[in-house]
Amino acid sequence: MSDIAPDLAKLPVTVITGFLGSGKTTLIRHLMQNPQGKRLAVIVNEFGDVGVDGDILKSCAIPDCPAENIVELANGCICCTVADDFIPTIEALMALDPRPEHILIETSGLALPKPLLKAFDWPDIRSRITVDGVIALADAEAVADGRFAPNVALVDAQRAADESIDHETPLSEVFEDQISCADIILLTKPDLAGADGIKRAKAMIAAVAPRALPVVEVAEGVVDVRVILGLEAAAEDDMDARPSHHDDAPDHDHDDFESVVIDLPEQSDPADLVARIERLASEMNILRVKGYAAVTGKPMRLLVQAVGARVRHQYDRPWGADEARRGRLVVIAEHDDINEAAIRAILKA
Asked: What residues form DSSP beta bridges with 72?
């Protein structure tokens, strides 16, 4: 019999949550490249069937986190398919030789973290893993602009006048649930927010947090690994301290959001593609666009990541000899803003 206490033998898991485009993949890439001697494994939970984030991370694989330790789960919600996908994935990672010493889970930007924590209470894995901590990333500029809780004074007035009104938008509920579930907040892209924006963002986070939470400013995902790993929070045993808007709901879903996958032919001008993506944000309230494109005359694949009208693109790797030179973009929006025909018309214009 092992002389190691069961709790000490548990494999730690860090859940990394945050709104769309907040920098989760960038953070995990930094952790992979600076593992502090730990063997890492990564579960990437995508929304849609184009594995952009997983592909990015696999291209950064190193001996302490090889490609076979990076697993993608599609459809945006790990906890909706616990028995079919999540538990088998955890078990497969724990069966690797050598076994990972720490697992990172990148949730979909639309995911509610608390139902995922509940999955760690499943008998098959509860005795073998523990949630070391929940890390919530928040885009400093977006939070400072009040995008997740607009017109707070007006909402308070409406609530006082009529308690039957649904005062919260789906996006604000996702944001608040992520903050409420977290052990530490990483405030990303602080350079875009400026000093005043950072102050406003921290005030908004404090206003929605159920308890005092540390907030750390992080640029380009660079943070001391010791700050966010090894928290020993045992979050699965601390559920009451992590309130959710959906605590009374019998189950959960993501029907408020939809995604469309658009195949693109080779592009002659990346700037023109960027302009079309910006147009989507301005005309159709598109939340997120991510994927890749082929550019005529360029041997490298063009990686595209957009949050609203903010578009970033870079050549990330050469096209494989057996790959078709075509692009694929995942477009994500709230349900009422998805018009597939119009999206296709703009992106293929």
From this structure: 44
CA dihedral of residues 40, 78, 327, 21 (deg, nearest 10): -80
Query: What's residue 6's pLDDT?
Result: 38
pTM greater than the 0.85 cutoff? no
Residue indicated by tokens 């548990």: 10
CA-based angle 203:204:209, to the nearest 5? Answer: 100
Distances (CA, A) of 15 to 80, 130, 191, 234, 306: 16, 11, 25, 12, 23
CATH architecture of 257-347: 2-Layer Sandwich (3.30)
Domain range summary for the chain, segments of one domain joined by +: 10-241, 257-347
Q: Report how far apart, in Å, the C-alpha atoms of 151 and of each of 145, 146, 154, 196, 207 are.
A: 11, 8, 5, 19, 14
Q: Does domain 10-241 have CATH number 3.40.1000.20?
A: no
Quickly count: other Cβ atoms within 10 Å of residue 278's Cβ.
17
Q: Which one, of 290, 269, 262, lies nearest residue 346 by Cα?
A: 262
Query: Which pLDDT score is estimated for 267?
Result: 93
